[in-house]
Amino acid sequence: MSRHATSAPSPRARPTRTGSIYLLVLGGAVIVTLMGMAAVTSSRIATRTAARGRDWAQAGLLATSAVEIAVARINRDVAWRSAHATGVPVVIGPLGRGTLRYVLVDDDGSLTDELTDPVQVLGIATVGDTTRCFSVMAAPASAGVPLPALSSIIHSAGTLSQLSGALSLDGGPLTTNSSLTIAGTLTGNAECQTAVITGTVDGTVLTGVDPRAMPSPSVVAVYNQMASVIPWTSLVSQRIENALVSPSSPPTAATPPSPSGVYAITVPAGSTLTIRYCRLRATLLVTLEAGASLRVLKSLLWDPPRPDFPCLIVSGGALSNVEFGLDAARLSEPGTGRNFNPPSDPYAGLSDADLLDTYASELHGLYHIIGPSSTVRVTTEARFAGTLLAEGSVELINTASFSHEPGLLSVPPIGYTARTGTMVPVRGTWQWAAAP
User: Fold this and answer.
1) Of 272, 222, 221, 277, which is closest to residue 245 (Cα–Cα)?
2) Do the beta carbons of residue 229 and residue 211 sit within 8 Å?
């Protein structure tokens, strides 16, 4: 019996696992890389967020500073309203890591039409890519205490002389920061440093009194912001006469109407401006160049355009002079051929279209003469109710009756208080705002 040998089957080759291991290692590396990149990205985002947070906080602080700087700037400049335009940015400059600017906004679109208008002050700061804006409303401070000189009927920083005639005072004294001379008759009180009396006084004269503070000469800049200019060449014979001067009625055809009732004119050197036979409801700003003169004569009725404005501010150059020489005759519509109370400008609430009325010749309100070398001469016989302030010397001649206007103390003209034009932030109006 034969046997056949049977061969054993050959074993299978084992599959290799190197590809799987590579994939696992590669996948792990990718995951680690992604985790690293995520960590780096997260760190960068956190860093940027922190930087933006710092920029945001610093921009907020700087925006607040910009508001404070803006308020301080406008309170240092009496003419700030005309130096700015509503809504137009003003660059303050760099500060720390940021840049600052501010914007003033008046709701009616004009910073100069009303001196008592509040304004919105926007402080804007940019730090990096971050810009923030802080806002507050600023309004004029309370009127403050009227200057002591407003309690006088006539006050001069220079000498004050009553040279002749009889002067009667009612409601206030004559005062001067210098010497007083009385050669005529004075019925009333006076205050001065020294006195020379050769006439008659029915009242009290106090000597050695403390000087009374004069208004700042820069007060004229406050009103210049609102003034319409009267061209000198538009005057006939260098006069304003037979005219109604008011916000809606300018003194010459070449003069634009002034909504505030303020008009300005410059009198050339050596020339004379004469105002007579007029009714004025206006503030006149008169600049007298060297040797120029202003004469307010004949029949005249003068009131301010509003209670807190003066009637006249004169800026006098060297050797300039001002004369008040009104007479007692009434201002006459038939005599001038001019209607002084049309519907646009009623007087005492009354208006008409005829030429039949007459008016008392009187000066009411505040008259301020700036310039230590300007001489003021008062020869008026008409009634004066108000205050005359002069930096130079004052001479009083002829018979006159002067009285004080109490309204000058209860509603002092803007710029004639102890705090002139100060703007202060209004409580409760601080807030964040969108940058313009």
Assistant:
1) 277
2) no
Find tokens 């919105």 and name the residue.
Answer: 120
pLDDT, tens digit, for every residue of 103-134? 999 988 889 877 778 899 999 999 999 999 99
Question: Which of 323, 345, 386 shows the shortest CA–CA distance to 261?
Answer: 345
Structure tokens at 95: 């500060």
Identity of the amino acid at 242: N
Contact 101, 89 (CB under 8 A): yes
Q: Are 63 and 124 in contact (CB under 8 A)?
A: yes
For residues 2 and 16, what is the distance between their CA atoms, to the nearest angstrom? 44
Amino acid present at 236: V
Q: What is the pLDDT at residue 1? A: 43
Task: Please give the model's pTM, rounded to 2 decimal places.
Answer: 0.75
SS3 sequence of 343-406: CCCCECCECCCCCCCEECCEEEEEEEEECCCCEEEECCCCEEEEEEEECCEEEECCCEEEECCC
Question: Which residue in 177, 171, 214, 209 sits closest to 189, CA to CA?
Answer: 171
Q: Are 425 and 71 in contact (CB under 8 A)?
A: yes
* Average pLDDT of the segment spanning 228-244: 97
Give residue limits of the domains in the chain: 55-141+422-433, 148-410
- pLDDT at residue 159 in the model: 97
Residue 112 neighbours by CB distance under 10 Å = 19
